[in-house]
Amino acid sequence: MICKTLIALFAAALFSVNCLAQESQPSIKEDFKPSTLNQPGQEYPQVNSQGYARFRIQAPLADSVRVSLGLGGRGGTILTKGEDGFWTGTTEGPMDEGFHYYNVKIDGGKFNDPGALNFYGSVRWESGIEIPAHDQDFYALKDVPHGKVEQILFPSKSTGTSRRAFVYTPPSYEKDKSKKYPVLYLQHGWGEDETAWSNQGRANLIMDNLIAEGKIKPFIIVMTYGMTNEVKWGRIRDFSIDPFQTVLTQELIPYVDANFRTLANRDNRAMAGLSMGGMETRMITLNKPDIFGYYGLLSGGVYAPEDLKDKAKPKLVFLSCGSKERPDGVKKAAADLKAAGYNSVSYISENTAHEFQTWRRSLHQLAPLLFKN
């Protein structure tokens, strides 16, 4: 009798928990629309107003299809096969706002979604999806004057080849041929390349909009490959900064100063980077404090006062990360620097993790602080 009573109580409790879980799970709104990063004419993937993503993949002979995008630690989103040979599925919950990489696994093989545009990340071209953000206006394409992003090929004796960089010049650059500009050297993260900040980060649109609003002093941005992807993930400690430091400081910067109208001095030169690009920024600015006057680490570590002691004092140290990363460490590091007499600013991107929405917002906050008189 006791066993039967316990079983009945357990069943009732389980039923109650399931009911509560179902009641607490928000219903999914069926207002899905194609992602803004879809290939022309492609209906899927789609996103809805709540931030859910829905996928539809044609694979009639497949036994299993899974999309890597999903809630953290849950292995992505499993798709279900329909009679028409299409596999369909929706993320278990809403995704963080902004840009996300993802891929499709069909019977264990890794492929890109044929409906989505591709972006270089994770040391390969990955599919990309954009979850609409409440603050997306600051990187939206607007009817304002636009700057130019151009590819340059600069000679590199240290590597024995020409290397590529992308240079953003503000809208006024072509109008006044006598004016010179400060320069920000902006680095990507591990697995990415020199296309990341323009494509995934929308750095040029962020700049165009800030300039149009009169919120920043116009400046040039230079984006080049940080030579990061030769080191395997998990072996980041083995990375040597020396080859890239040589390329950047002895080859790229002189080339930019010779071929663009720059203010070629420390007080008008900044370096910043996201993730591993932040780690590069930290190493190079500590090694070469006479070259850069402004430092920015975006989810890329911190400086301590003792790191900067007895070196040329930076005009600004900017530290940022997402609220889902380690914000307390960033805030404390900035406070410690400020207490030690440094101009230090911290920024925390709310409700984002180690992802491009964090870094878009960080650039948006950093840019107005650069090159102030």
From TrEMBL:
Keywords in alphabetical order: Signal
Highest rank taxon of the organism: Bacteria
Coiled-coil annotated residue ranges, if any: none
Signal peptide from the UniProt entry: 1-21
SUPFAM superfamilies assigned: alpha/beta-Hydrolases, E set domains
Pfam families: Esterase
The protein's name: Esterase
